[in-house]
Task: structure prediction
Amino acid sequence: MSSMSSSSMDSAQRKPSEDEKMDRPALTNVEVNRALPGGRKAQPLTEQEKKRHPMYRKPSRIRREDSDASYMANSKKRQVFQDNADDDEPTGKDQESRIKRAKVQDRQIKWVDLDSKEKNNIAMVVEYTNDIFDFLYEREKNTIPMHNYLLDRKSKYHLRPATRAVLVDWLVEVHDKFQCYPETLYLGINIMDRFLSQHKVDINKLQLLAVTSLFIAAKFEEINLPKLSEYAYITDGAASKDDIKVSEMFILTELKFSLDWPNPLNFLRRLSKADGYDGECRMIAKFILEYSLCSSKFVGEKPSELAAMAIFLARRILKRESPIWDDTFIHYSGGIDALNDNHFQNLCTIMINEIAQPATKLTALCDKYKSIKGGTIYDKTIKWCKDQMERNYENVFSC
Result:
């Protein structure tokens, strides 16, 4: 390998002096080299050529974005870009009818837009909220049990309601010990109900089904999961780790891996916004919601309706000021008019009866909401439900 001499290295590393720097022409003063055939010397650019040459061309004006205030609202944008034939060169009559329709819509909209207050919170994705819940309202129809296997005695999948109630109450206790998210419990019960509505399960295998359903739900909802060995241990020998793994694959296959059930807590949080995020009201609503999941009479009901029922009864229990259910609640419940909807009122009446006169004692659920962690709201809720039964629900659905 050849090496450089010390003198050549010194000259290569030596920095030029200030005088040498001054003698060098600036880059902008060097004429543009235009290579010509035959080695002929290039002539300096004329003024007109400099204007056309990219090196001498002035930078184009920078495009500045308009401020956010200049943009139209999202609803207006959608109207602008809708490709409707009626919008092409409207006649005077068409223009008048559209203005009339807009005025009618303005009179009809009486609900308060609570989402707009959170438009600066990017985590709330306010611009997509309505589309998200429209999707959830459609999706919930396809992810509820095929039929109420508890009340249909002629069904080959029939199971005694008391048996399921005890099973769900045990799941509530296990869920509380594992300290999982509330969504995990609701999804676990939904998985179990959907499977039981399609398959006859031996009574000795029901605990295995329940714990496996909770195990699957935890994988879907949780970040820090309880270990598989903990699930096996809590069954007290009723299910081994291998049993749970085999059951997991069988359940998922039968449900076609469809676990994206719209959780009722999603709708409950939406309605809590209309209620001003009242903590006590929300705690009572969660108790009613969990109670409805334990009851055989609510299997197959939509999660959005159960959430609306829970928040409506919770507001009644706390004696909220009128109106108890205004246009804002109707909007944020997906269109449920609590004071005029017969099906909804029937659900509320059944729920009051279930709490006041339970067919099955749900020890774990009741103890959960008697505790400080559960807001100690159990006694207040029970007392109100019993009072309403004695009064024949005379004030439940009044304005």
Observations:
- The chain is about 55% helix and 0% strand.
